[in-house]
Specification:
The complex is a heterodimer. Chain A is an alpha/beta fold. Chain A has 12 helices and 7 strands. Chain B has 2 domains: 183 residues, Thiamin diphosphate (ThDP)-binding fold, Pyr/PP domains (Rossmann fold), CATH 3.40.50; 126 residues, Rossmann fold (3-Layer(aba) Sandwich). Helices cover 35% and strands 21% of the residues of chain B. The longest helix of chain B has 15 residues. The mean pLDDT of chain B is 97. Classes of the chains: A alpha/beta, B alpha/beta. Chains A and B meet through helix 5 and helix 6 of A and helix 3, helix 4, helix 5 and helix 6 of B.
């Protein structure tokens, strides 16, 4: 991989890491309200996959979706504003961490319902096919979601209809506290794809370069209308949500996975081709981005006000006039 | 004026045909809607005219309703057919957690114009899982509109408005109405959502209903008239948004209110309508306010059992008479 490409992947992954660490810190200080699901440890999947696709491609995410959105090109300022419940946030502070959508970058939402985004992504792929557009849909979900009916129904329809969609399973081994091996006879979610006539492959989800190169190879198939299931074996270093003491797994297991830290891995490679000084400069610049973005959201953005909280349950609709003179706002 | 006798079923077909011909961003999804023509024959041969846009799905209500949501978020107007309203429970996650919330939770960035067409209702001996009337379950879901046409022209006109609405709409048809035939004016304009219709004006009692209940009410009304009781019958047409003003105005005139629905009385649509009327015109009330509807038990398959559980004309008449006094 070229030096510049490597730096870019590294910067994206580190930006996600630093963002999540900041969110974690804010929660620990009581500066954020609600809940959050951090993707620390899983950055390689978001960055590896999304770096291969285009702005026009749709991405549908999960409850653990900050990384996907940052990789797709979200503005960190507006992301912080949303998490802080500010009006300037992407969803005016109404969505929050689990309901984040950024239309401009074709990011169709993080999702608070496990598996809820899978049919939605499949529907986006149906749109693409019906309009014969040159783009694809990418659908992230976890091992837990692969036990939802929505997963099976969606893969089946995507296969039967030949939809341009890449399903990406981030198998971090735990659906909240439930180990995947306790709720599935097979350890690999990828095995389920063959039941629907969908091709699949497994990739080391801790290695950004591998995720990137594997995705790259798959994409031409997807763009030609063959759905594909990519399973990335990964691990979340933190708990499921902010209040998880992680009693269901051992510290040894955690340490073992932390030795595969995707960011440490790529840093090691970069150090072979880049002076430490430059790496340091990248880190500092990203830290500044995070701090400055947070400062902007905290100091310059307004709380969601009372009137706005009560507005917007329904979208505006023009009156239908008559045939030949249709008012059909989009 | 171009008129012709037309069934409720065919009126919906005509509306779908008109919509599909007007806007190529409209698609229909559902089970058995191509060669079979839909379980109740509504989509009929539309698949021949619009082969790409009539999408016959596997039996996966949750999945294809979610796919409809995704397609709607990316620019289509999607009409989903749920074969029996009872099956809508399989799609409720996508309706309640997704479709209905999209505009609000994403700060207005996206809309979700999905219309879920589904036939409700019993009186056919189909038993618990093929006879229910579940609209009340969706009344408390913000972001969702609920439409339940009782007449042929409303089935046509309300469907046009529902599909061009930028919000998800639950469009409830009724199995017993599909064969109802009337003289139909092809120049019928779209009927705006959120406006009730006064079916018949009367002085003594305001009887409010929706869907098939309007026809039960209408028959009861004729019989009551011969007994000298003059009933005003209102068809809500749209349950959400609710045209409570029309009901309130009527109750201020008659002083009496009966709500009739085929669904459960407990937790039903009538509870909401009655509450709003009481909040706004209690001093005008001059008699017992009553609700007629389904008993709080599942719907048995047996004919006699079903008759016992679902509302009938006798019970409507009884309620109207009781509403005339406080005793």
């Amino acid at each position: 991989m070229k030096r510049e490409e490597l730096i870019q992947l590294y910067s994206k992954a580190l930006l996600i890491r630093l963002f999540e660490e900041k969110v974690d810190w804010l929660f620990s200080r009581g500066r954020l309200w609600g809940t959050t699901h951090l993707c620390i440890g899983q950055e390689a999947v978001a960055v590896g996959v999304i770096s291969c696709i285009r702005r026009a491609d749709y991405v549908v995410s999960t409850h653990r979706g900050h990384g996907h959105l940052i990789a797709k090109g979200a503005d960190i300022k507006l992301l912080f504003a949303e998490l802080l419940g500010r009006r300037e946030g992407y969803c005016m502070g109404k969505g929050g961490t689990q309901h984040l959508c950024v239309k401009d970058v074709n990011f169709l939402g993080t999702n608070g319902i496990t598996g809820g985004g899978i049919p939605i992504a499949t529907g986006a792929a149906l749109s693409i096919k019906l309009r014969d557009e040159d783009r694809i849909a990418v659908c992230f979900f976890g091992d837990g979601a692969s036990n939802q009916g929505a997963f099976h129904e969606s893969l089946n329809m995507a296969s039967v209809w030949g939809l341009p969609i890449l399903y990406v399973c981030e198998n971090n081994m735990y659906g909240m506290s439930t180990r995947f091996s306790m709720v599935s006879k097979y350890e690999d979610v990828a095995k389920r794809a063959c039941a629907y006539g969908i091709e699949s492959t497994i990739v080391d989800g801790m290695d950004i370069e591998k995720v990137y190169s594997t995705t790259e190879k798959i994409l031409s198939k997807v763009r030609n209308g063959s759905p594909f299931l990519l399973e990335a074996k990964t691990y979340r270093f933190c708990g499921h949500s902010k209040s998880d003491p992680r009693l269901y797994r051992t510290r040894d297991e955690e340490d073992e996975w932390k030795r595969k830290d995707p960011i440490a891995q790529i840093e090691k490679k970069l150090l072979e081709i880049l002076p430490e000084k430059e790496l340091h400069a990248i880190r500092e610049s990203l830290r500044n981005t995070i701090e400055e973005s947070y400062r902007y959201a905290e100091e310059e953005c307004k709380e969601l006000d009372k009137d706005e909280a009560l507005r917007g349950a329904y979208a505006y609709t023009n009156a239908y006039v008559s045939q030949g003179d249709i008012q059909c706002p989009r | 004026m171009r008129t012709q006798t037309l069934t409720y079923r065919r009126a919906i077909y005509n509306a779908l045909d008109r919509l599909l011909s007007e806007d190529e961003n409209i698609i229909i999804m559902g089970e058995d809607i191509t060669e079979y023509g839909g379980a109740f024959g509504v989509t009929s041969d539309l698949y021949r005219k619009y082969p790409k846009r009539i999408i016959s799905t596997p039996i996966s209500e949750g999945g294809f309703t979610g796919i409809a949501v995704g397609a709607a978020m990316t620019g289509f107007r999607v009409i989903v057919e749920i074969m029996f309203m009872d099956f809508i429970t399989l799609a409720t996650d996508q309706i309640v957690n997704h479709a209905a919330n999209i505009h609000y939770m994403y700060g207005g960035q996206l809309t979700c114009p999905v219309v879920i067409r589904t036939p409700a209702g019993g009186y056919r001996g189909y038993g618990v899982s093929h006879s229910q009337t579940l609209e009340a379950c969706f009344m408390s879901v913000p972001g969702l509109k609920i439409v339940a046409p009782a007449s042929v022209s409303d089935a046509y006109g309300l469907l046009l408005s529902s599909v061009y609405d930028n919000n998800p709409v639950l469009f409830i048809e009724h199995k017993l109405l599909y064969n109802m035939e009337v003289e139909f004016d092809f120049d019928t304009e779209p009927v705006p959502l959120g406006r009730a219709r006064i079916v018949r004006e009367g002085r003594d009692v305001t009887l409010v209903s929706h869907s098939y209940g309007v026809h039960l009410g209408s028959t009861a009304l004729e019989e009551l008239l011969s007994e000298g009781i003059d009933v005003e019958l209102i068809d809500l047409r749209t349950l959400k948004p609710l045209d409570i003003d029309t009901v309130v105005e009527s109750v201020r005139k008659t002083g009496r209110l009966v709500y009739l629905e085929e669904g459960n009385v407990f937790g039903g649509v009538g509870g909401e309508v009655v509450s709003q009327v009481v909040e706004r015109c209690l001093p005008y009330i001059d008699g017992r306010i009553l609700r007629v509807g389904k008993a709080d038990v599942p719907i048995p398959a047996s004919i006699s059992g079903e008759r016992e559980v679902l509302p009938d004309i006798e019970r409507v008449k009884e309620a109207v008479k009781s509403s005339l006094s406080w005793s």
